[in-house]
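does this look right to u?? flavin-adenine dinucleotide version
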Amino acid sequence: MEISQRGRRTTEERLCRNNIIPTLKDAVPGDLSLVFPHRIMVDIKEMLLALDKVTPGIASDETLLYGVEVKFYSNKVVVNSDFETSVLGLRAIGDGASVTRGLQQASANGISVARSILSKLI
Ligand SMILES: Cc1cc2nc3c(=O)[nH]c(=O)nc-3n(C[C@H](O)[C@H](O)[C@H](O)COP(=O)(O)OP(=O)(O)OC[C@H]3O[C@@H](n4cnc5c(N)ncnc54)[C@H](O)[C@@H]3O)c2cc1C
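got this back:
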């Protein structure tokens, strides 16, 4: 979530001073320019300025903008170099464990862990 037009990061402190109270209570204050490409930010600001002519006040310095942030690989299973987890006998590999991000990596990861298991059996 970011306070529009000022182009600076919204913090909890700045949000407390803002006259507009967030409607989305779960939203985390942040900096949308780190989420959206520059061109998108410019377009949003242009849109707000245009809308302001129809609904004066919408381009206010205190208007809050919300952005959705999706992290696909944020949860990573902690494994050692043999892909062993802290649970004895349980290994985590592939995309599901965020160890890999593609077919070739996942395939190589499978071979690697198979070799590791074999070496411990012999
Ligand atoms: C649409 C799409 C296009 C892609 N294109 C490319 C590409 O062009 N090039 C590239 O390198 N990568 C591509 N990828 C990524 C690639 O598919 C994955 O990186 C790769 O398949 C990961 O392999 P994996 O073995 O880790 O997981 P997966 O291939 O997802 O295998 C996991 C397996 O576990 C099974 N499973 C899940 N839960 C359970 C359970 N509870 N019990 C038993 N089995 C279970 C699933 O059915 C699945 O068969 C693409 C992915 C998608 C979705």
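The chain is about 35% helix and 5% strand. idk if thats expected tbh
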